[in-house]
Amino acid sequence: MNNERQHIDDHVVEQLSGYVDGELTQQQRQRVDVHCANCTECATDLRELQELRETIGNARFSNRNQDAWREMMNDTTVQTTRGIGWLLLIGGALVCLGIGVFVFLFGSSVSLVEKLIVSAIYGGLALLFYSVLRQRLIERKTDKYKDVEI
Ligand SMILES: [Zn+2]
């Protein structure tokens, strides 16, 4: 009786955290178990602590899920949409340019000098477009590496 009384007086509050985290030895765990069976105060603390850990654990888990989901969305949907957008833009631009160049070069009402000047302008535009596109592709690669670092 006296022994049990001592158990109750000697609260195990400091060990509850370790108990929940599974850091205690078998002997220490048993002591907490025995104490909490007799002491509602510590038993309540232990239950609250366990609920808290569970909530934090769940929050962490759902955060990780959200990250994975975001990564997946970023990898598939966003990149596919972006890829299709670029493809349509480039394809459309190339078709327009091709038709324009064809009509221009084989139209009889324009002089050779004018043809050369406008060809140079279109060529310059095409080169600029290509360099911007290249830069964007490189930036996209760099962004990917940044994501990995974070
Ligand atoms: Zn206690």
Question: What can you see in these coordinates?
Answer:
The chain has five helices and no strands. It has 150 residues and is mainly α. The protein has a domain at 2-80. The protein is rod-shaped and about 105 Å long. The chain binds zinc ion (ZN). Zinc ion (ZN) is lined by residues 11-12, 35, 39, 41-42.
Keywords:
150 residues; mainly alpha; rod-shaped; binds zinc ion
Share of helical residues = over 70%
Strand content: under 5%
First-residue to last-residue Cα separation: 59 Å
Give a list of the ligands.
zinc ion
Provide the succession of SSEs. HHHHH
Query: Structural class given helices, strands, pairing?
Result: mainly alpha
Biggest β-sheet description: none
- Basic shape: rod-shaped
Average pLDDT taken over every residue? 80
Number of helices: 5
Write down how many β-strands occur, each being a DSSP E stretch of 2 or more residues: 0
Q: What's the Cα radius of gyration?
A: 35 Å
Low-confidence stretches: none
